[in-house]
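Work Package 3 (structural annotation) set out to generate three-dimensional models for the target panel prioritized at the project kickoff. During this period the team completed the workflow that converts sequence records into discrete structure tokens, so that structures can be stored uniformly alongside our sequence database. As a representative example, we reproduce one entry of 76 residues exactly as it appears in the project archive.
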Amino acid sequence: MKKLYELTVGDVAKILKITATDPLKSRLYSLGLNKGEIIRVLAHTLVKNTYAIEVNSARIALRSEEAKMIIVDQDI
């Protein structure tokens, strides 16, 4: 298990848990970031302040604070 924050460009993983509290958790759910979804890291800034990910063919940008709250598993 890792946090989304720890992944690098090109990594693919399955969402295991989102540790954020409402309303952020609700916002992430509405963007399609739900338990069991497969995500791919498309890009991140050099200092990992923001991430571009793909979930269900949608591209989403996340801040590092949000990426630290998403627990993923790369063994899919």
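The chain has a mean pLDDT of 95.
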